[in-house]
Structures are given as structure tokens and as C-alpha cells.
Design a protein that fits this description.
- The protein is elongated.
- With 83 residues, it is an all-alpha fold.
- It contains four helices and no strands.
- Helix 2 (26-33) crosses helix 3 (37-44) and helix 2 packs across helix 4.
Length: 83
């Protein structure tokens, strides 16, 4: 299933749901990715500032990937509407 993710909180929710589907604890996921349980907790709760390489390791372990697509910014092209 394709999901649109536009915030750290949404990404954290997806990672948490995938972890739970695989019956992994935060500590197990941390061990697989070479990071700490606290880092996993922070990512899952949407705290900003996670390292991109950590996110990529998490996604790889969970069998997920990132795909980019154009975003509709509205008829007037106002970038203020994007966020």
C-alpha cells in the first residue's frame, strides 16, 4: 500500500505500525539498525532531527522504501499552501 507522508509524525506512525506488524520491540529494531531504543522511540513519536541514514536503515529493516512524486501546490502555485 502506498502512503503519503508529509511530516515526521506521519513517518513515525508508519514505522511504528510496520514494527508492530513484524512483532518487533523497539529494542529489537534498534539492535537490527545499530541505534538505540531511545532513537526508535523518538522517531516513532515524530520528533524532528533523526539522521537520514538512520531512517534509511529503519526502512530497509522493515522492508519499506521512499518514492517521490510531484505534489499538487494548488492552482495559483502558492508554496505557502504546501505546508
Amino acid at each position: 500500500m502506498t502512503q503519503v507522508i508529509r511530516s515526521a509524525a506521519q513517518l513515525g506512525t508508519v514505522i511504528r505500525n510496520e514494527r508492530l506488524l513484524r512483532n518487533l520491540t523497539q529494542q529489537q529494531l534498534a539492535d537490527f539498525t545499530g541505534t538505540g531504543q531511545k532513537t526508535i522511540s523518538q522517531i516513532e513519536t515524530g520528533h524532528a532531527g533523526a539522521r537520514l541514514d538512520t531512517i534509511f536503515r529503519l526502512l530497509a529493516v522493515l522492508g519499506l522504501e521512499i518514492a517521490f512524486s510531484p505534489r499538487d501546490v494548488g492552482a495559483d502555485g502558492n508554496l505557502g499552501d504546501v505546508f
